[in-house]
Write a sequence for this structure.
């Protein structure tokens, strides 16, 4: 690592305008997040056009604030890391263009970053990564098991075939008339209830690390509707607890199995759903009798979208000599294995 390397991270892939300054890949000097959740709440989800508009309004202010809080100026920045994808194209474009403008104006290297790589590298801000490792990525748009042999090398060994875990949480929450984003509400309810309702678990083929949550989501919705038709009521707490138990059971079982098969040093939890208390506790319990594997779980502030995680990836790319050209573009379907 070069002496005192300073990277600015920019993240605008969804509904947070975020800029962070990270020193030597691990030390957060500032981490500013302007959330738009309040604007999207009344629509029950993120409205892409509104997201883009908010990013345009916020991005320069958030960049200035991140520099101010870190007590740095553009002259101190060694690299500008920005999320190039996946995400909402209009939202991504704001961050990518801001990053290109700053990089060009101040002659700073530009570093395009994959959003999910960012979620994984949130763990690097907690603990030095040791390889090989396995990351369980659970977010609003992704559910993946990612194997890493070394820095910036990603192999997806399993992924969802339909809904992402966070998406299933949000849809179930919507059925229960809970506000967006629903994940934290289901999590809270689940802790107040008991898993009394029998819901399916999609294990898929025996050797598969893939996931599927749409059947579970439909089962929850059907359970509610059937009860309604019979004039019965179902305790939302117990339904939330049953749903959460089913999701966690599959996530944890597959993660433990993969960790053993791939003989990894570390298991990392990543993505917005990593904030789930039930999932965190279940993973801690599962790995408590596997001392050969170190489990890392980031603090809540680094689980949801932020730019420190993007800067952490940028730091590794910078050290590897990787640079993006000014032709860098938003890429909503960006592949992490590329
Ligand atoms: O990683 P993220 O910010 O978005 C993507 O990059 O896709 O994750 C957002 C997702 C939402 O679906 C939200 O409901 C979920 O994370 N989430 C949770 C919890 N906190 C956030 N899901 C379950 N339990 C939580 N405590
Ligand atoms: Zn995310």
């Amino acid at each position: 690592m070069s002496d005192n390397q300073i990277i600015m991270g920019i993240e605008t892939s969804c509904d947070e305008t975020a800029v962070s300054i990270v020193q030597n890949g691990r030390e957060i000097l500032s981490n500013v997040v302007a959330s738009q959740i309040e604007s999207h709440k009344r629509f029950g989800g993120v409205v892409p056009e509104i997201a883009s508009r908010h990013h345009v309004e916020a991005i320069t202010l958030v960049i200035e604030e991140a520099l101010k809080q870190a007590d740095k100026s553009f002259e101190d920045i060694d690299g500008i890391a920005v999320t190039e994808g996946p995400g909402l194209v209009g939202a991504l474009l704001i961050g990518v263009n801001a990053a290109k403008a700053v990089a060009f104006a101040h002659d700073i290297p530009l570093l395009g970053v994959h959003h999910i790589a960012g979620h994984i590298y949130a763990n690097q801000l907690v603990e030095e990564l040791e390889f090989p490792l396995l990351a369980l990525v659970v977010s609003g748009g992704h559910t993946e098991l990612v194997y890493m042999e070394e820095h910036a090398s990603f192999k997806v060994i399993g992924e969802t075939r339909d809904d992402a875990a966070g998406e299933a949480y949000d849809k179930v929450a919507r059925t229960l008339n809970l506000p967006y984003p629903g994940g934290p509400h289901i999590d809270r309810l689940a802790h107040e209830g008991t898993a009394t309702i029998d819901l399916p678990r999609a294990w898929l083929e025996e050797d598969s690390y893939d996931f599927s949550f749409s059947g579970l989501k439909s089962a929850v919705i059907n359970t509610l509707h059937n009860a309604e038709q019979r004039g019965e009521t179902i305790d939302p707490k117990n339904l939330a607890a049953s749903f959460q138990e089913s999701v966690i059971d599959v996530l944890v079982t597959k993660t433990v199995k993969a960790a053993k098969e791939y003989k990894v040093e570390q298991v990392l939890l990543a993505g917005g759903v990593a904030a789930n208390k039930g999932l965190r506790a279940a993973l801690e319990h599962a790995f408590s009798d596997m001392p050969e594997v170190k489990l890392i779980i980031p603090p809540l502030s680094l689980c949801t979208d932020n730019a420190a995680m993007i800067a952490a990836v940028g730091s590794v790319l910078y050290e590897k000599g990787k640079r993006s050209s000014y032709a860098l573009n938003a890429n909503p379907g960006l592949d992490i294995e590329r």
Observations:
- Residues 115, 119, 139, 272, 305 surround zinc ion (ligand 2) (CB under 6 Å).
